[in-house]
Protein 1
Amino acid sequence: MARFGEAAEPTLIKASVPKQSWPLVINTWSFTNATEKAWDILFNKRGSALDAVEQGCTVCEVEQCDGTVGYGGSPDENGETTLDAMIMDGPTHDTGAVAGLRRVKSAISVARKVMEHTVHTLLVGDQATKFALSMGFKEENLTTSVSAALHEHWISQSCQPNYWKNVVPDPTVSCGPYQPVTSKEKNFKQSVRTEGKNYNTHNHDTIGMIAIDEHGNMAGGTSTNGASHKIPGRVGDSPIPGSGAYVDQFVGGAAATGDGDIMMRFMPALIAVEGMRSGLPPSAAAEVALSRIAVYYPKYMGAVIVTNIDGEFGAACHGFDTFPYSVANTALGTVTVFSVNCFA
């Protein structure tokens, strides 16, 4: 077992662990470099949960984790990469978020500026970019050769998959431009969305992170570039408090990843925290939050990570085979990847 601060290969295990003490960091997926950075802030530097979440998620933005966080990934229908992020402070319940952020790479840091320098919660689009520039951030092109190639390939495949329905020409074989169908033309079978058809483990991810510092202060945050080939202007669940992430200083925190267009309708992070408030252990609270979604959308893909304020943690998932998530605390002794089997 490596000492704290030393690099170590993450360990993959399929288990939960008993209640742990502070500090703690937990995040979605096997984004262990992000976990390591957050843990360094919490343990070695004895820093705040807010700093740990911001700097941990920033690692994924810089490393372009899975091509689904940060610049150069998930181009929209116009070929542009835009960013969504949020950060939430447990002790104050203050929250800052950005959505559809254009031409600025440091999405979660801009979100923190929204929290700390405005009384607003969410800024969007070009106005969020203008705010970021006023806060000293640099304007940069978020397109790379990789994201440009993804967009060109999508066009060559007749723009498949896409996120349109009840339009003409037929969006399953055409790139548009689209017009709404008239009531005379409407195919009611087409109007029923087949959830999950546009999503897989490679075209959408979010880093969602929850941290508890040595003083017991909690923070949570998310960062993503959204769904590949999304309709321009689309905002997913990640920057929405209670959906992408949620923390309650007296209960615990949760973060979600998956089919954001569906998951944001059910506020799974909030529901998971409320489940813990009612006495459920973290994994059970996560499963309850996801089960509610499955009643309406039995084929959706999603996962939730959860920790209570005592540092007991867990996760649940739906629509994948398994779901990995990364944890560091004093008991584990190193960044550890856990894996949970998904239901349905």
Protein 2
Amino acid sequence: MTLKVYTSILFLFLVNSVWTRTVRQVYDDLDPEHWSHYTSECPQECFCPPSFPNALYCDNKGLKEIPAIPARIWYLYLQNNQIETLSEKPFVNATHLRWINLNKNKITNSGIESGVLSKLKRLLYLFLEDNELEEVPAPLPVGLEQLRLARNKISRIPEGVFSNLENLTMLDLHQNSLLDSALQSDTFQGLDNLMQLNIAKNSLKKMPLSIPANTLQLFLDNNSIEVIPENYFSAIPKVTFLRLNYNKLSDDGIPPNGFNVSSILDLQLSHNQLTKIPPINAHLEHLHLDHNKIKSVNGTQICPVSIALEEDYGYYGNIPRLRYLRLDGNEIQPPIPLDIMICFRLLQAVVI
């Protein structure tokens, strides 16, 4: 199972470079006599590299409008400009677009022409970070695989906006203005293949409802979450990386076996209000508990398996897999208790 998880995550983060490299290999062999044609139809404000003719670089040009995009373009870079509107006109011929980077502009919802995004049928990656959006734009291209909306002013997610995005693997909404009321039980309906959901740095007080079942990475740092509902993670049985740093979790807010979940390999609970280590699963590999209020650590109590049984089965049994444990910023005094080392034989680093 672990191998499958790591394979999926590797795909999620490296697919950009694989596509780009493949496309470059195709176009690096172009006859130079064709370069003049590509240069002639290149917008004056932009740069069209001859060796990568399906990319258009219009970033950092002080643009207030999007120029006409040539039909050959797959990758469009428009970040770091002063663009306020998205209209259909510049994209009339751009029927092959796969990737649009519009980060760090001044785009508002009212500046997005109705239907302009959904008409980009082949678009897979849409970056709209650091703009002035107040809600998730809709409708969106049905084939979209990544949607990045970090650092906007989003406080509303329109009903059904994700319902047709079954190919979406990454949704980044971190550092917006989302309240609990913005995340209804059907908000993420339709995201059947979502792998990473980032809702960090919002204004949530509760764990979000109805997270897609296939989610592997759930990031909820820097909210005000106080309670983990009973059996919350049974609805997301594949979650592997869970980040809840900088929240308001206390011992009373965590069910007895709230984090005793076999799928979780990396659990981050730094900067909360815990006074003891919550029960963990033997499969957990990385545990971050720094900057809480923990005063002492008892290895026998927190060991997810019986130390006696561990002695019997040795390295061939279900010994705990914890490799990294961070406890600094608490009230714990060294040295590390011996029973911690006896239980977690695979530990490679303990920060205390």
Protein 3
Amino acid sequence: MDKHVDFYYEMTDDNEEEQYPQNTPVNGKYYEWQLSVGHQWLKIENDHVIETHYCHPGAKGISINTSHGVVFIDFDTLQANNPGIKVQRLSFLPRGQTEDIGWYFRDDQLWCEYGTQGSNTLSSSVSSRDVEQQFTTNPQGTFRFTVGHTPYLIDFSTMTQRNLITGLQRRLRRRPKLSSNTGAVSLTSALPTTSSSQTGVVGYRWEFMGVGEQWTEYQAHICSFDSAAIERQYQLNKQGTLNFKINRYSYTLDFSGMYQVNNKFGTRRSVRRTPIYGVQHNISSGPQAQWQFLDMDGSWKDYSKGICSTSSQEIEFQYKLNPSGTMTFSTRNFSYELSFSAMTQRNLRTGTTRTVRRLNQ
């Protein structure tokens, strides 16, 4: 269970402990995600993306592109689905400080934090801090509390909550809360220090909790609004609502509650707004560059989220970090490696190589 995510060593095959410093922040942040292939632990670049997803209770996991292919990280078990690959999240906390942990239960519609009101329940008599204190005292034990006059029992060993009258069980999740150290701070030291650019939020990604508890971005070819259009409406009225359509169904997005409702069936899904960090250029720097690949029909195609897992904006960000480096991305069926020095993309399964170009606009 995710109660084991914050640890400081990994037991090797010969039972030797590989120690890590416990009080050293990494690039201004107090966590680090790592993958192990064989006996070597390697940090994951731009792991603020993983952390942002992990801190949301509704996120089941995330797929990342690596030189070993696409790796899926299961947030509940903190394991990778790839044989021979391990994953861990290290926590580097100053002495005397602890991580702000949230405890959540899955009600009929949403993941709800203890101490708040669920979609079909009263607020509980305990908070995340109360549950965390009991868990820290006995990670394999149980904890009893009440909601109104109804008694409940939390079982930390199975990460479930049980109604002691009806016997109904619900799943639990324990996740760190998103802190001010998450995101842009972790990127500062890696970016070039020039007068024409700086790190910051370059936009926002709007997503809803889709099938299989996977976050799905609002995109124009699926929905009547994409992330950029939703963000514009949000800025106009952050407490308002937005009506939109997906196929034949109409929905209402509630900005204040951060959820969407199917107007016909009443089904409610969680919504989130995630900052996109990148390089912000001054007005004198001009527009962002456009990245394209040469398709098999001889035409140049733009990189966009409707085609693959990345966009021109994100490629440009990686390029600014290391103009001689590489990055990986995926489409529905394949994973690719984009080489900035060779200006090519390579299919990691078939080996097919295509030319890439960067257009200054």
